[in-house]
Specification:
- It comes from Pseudomonas coleopterorum.
- Pfam families: LysR_substrate.
- InterPro entries: LysR-type_TF_proteobact-type, LysR_subst-bd.
- The protein is of the alpha+beta class.
- The chain is elongated and about 55 Å long.
């Protein structure tokens, strides 16, 4: 069984805090690596990290999901550290099957740019990509809620500080505004307060 990620720990902490506040509420929390159909699977609320929401769903924005380009010190011992995003073409880039499998998007001084990347490992799970990076397999683009604690300890090195990877939004989504239960409404209000616009997990990367 793998250890919980920072994102999972944050979400679990929020859920346990909510049920402590409302002890009669029961929550069935499922952590999945796929997008669920809220109606068909009878899911009241989902947390999604994306800038492209399903127009058939109702969304409430919670906070920001930033990313960082990083690699393990063991990888950088045998590979020159990239100084520009164009240098990434010289590296083995560990990619996500659904997000950034061939293009990584950045801004620098407010100007957007993209770079084609490739590598020998692509997964549909960010935690697996993280583990590959920790093993020294290549350069990864990881959400800061995963990478920041490891940047803080030196297990990963943040790269390309002059470039900002594309920022995504974290949303709470549900199927319909009709018949929104009091519990769901209370949970939405709680999550908006619980997850501020500037997440605490970004601090380690911002200070690099």
């Amino acid at each position: 069984m793998r250890s919980p990620t920072t994102g999972q720990a944050q979400l679990t902490g929020a859920v346990t805090e909510f049920v402590a506040r409302y002890p009669k509420v029961r929550i069935d929390m499922q952590l999945l690596d796929r997008t669920v159909n809220l109606v068909d699977e009878r899911v009241d609320l989902a947390i999604r990290i994306t800038n492209e929401l399903d127009p058939n769903l109702i969304a409430r924005r919670l906070t920001t999901c930033r990313s960082v380009v990083c690699a393990a010190p063991s990888y950088l011992k045998t590979h020159m550290e990239p100084k520009t995003i164009e240098d990434l073409s010289l590296h083995n880039c560990l990619t996500h099957s659904y997000h950034g499998s061939s293009l990584w998007h950045f801004t620098r001084n407010g100007e957007p740019s993209s770079v084609a990347v490739n590598g020998n490992v692509s997964t549909n799970d960010s935690v697996t990509t993280l583990q590959a990076a920790l093993c020294g397999s290549g350069v990864a683009l990881l959400p800061t809620y995963l990478a920041a604690p490891l940047v803080r300890t030196g297990e990963l090195v943040a790269l390309l500080p002059d470039y900002q990877p594309m920022t995504l939004s974290i949303h709470a989504v549900y199927a319909s505004r009709r018949h929104v239960s009091a519990v769901l409404r209370a949970m939405l209000d709680f999550l908006v307060v619980r997850f501020p616009e500037e997440p605490a997990w970004d601090s380690a990367v911002d200070a690099r």
